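Collaborator request, handled under Task 6.
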Amino acid sequence: MVVIIVALERKIINISLTYGREKRENAVSVQPNRNHYDAKQISRRAIVKSGLIAGAFIPAMGLMVDSASAAGLPALDPADPTAQALGYTTDATKVDAKMNATYKPNQKCSTCAQFQGKAGDASAGCNIFAGKSVVAGGWCKVWAAKPA
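Structure tokens returned to the collaborator:
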């Protein structure tokens, strides 16, 4: 048996010629070179460094996306069934205190813990009405004071 191994363009060509009494075989097989690394070797230091950069970058992108998406929320319609069930109104000064025993004159969406906007925002998202924005001067029965 004669074995000839030839390396051509990152491949190993294995040529085996077998001579026997019963038959004569000529076999040629092409196999990828398992000893040659095409890829650049990456160190642990590079992996850790990339992981730390990605770990800091991804949450920062999430914050930017959240603030941009909150500005584009559609306004909550007071005729919405959930809004009606919770007594939502766009003007807190027009709330009937007799109909809503929990209402106090200083309560409005902008002072509620569920309001996702900053002080001075005309409207912002609300945790109760997911995917909708509420008017800062509005009110509903779920109002809860912001923690100090």
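The cover message to the collaborator said: "Helices lie at 44-71, 81-85. The chain has two helices and five strands. Please let us know whether this matches your experimental observations."
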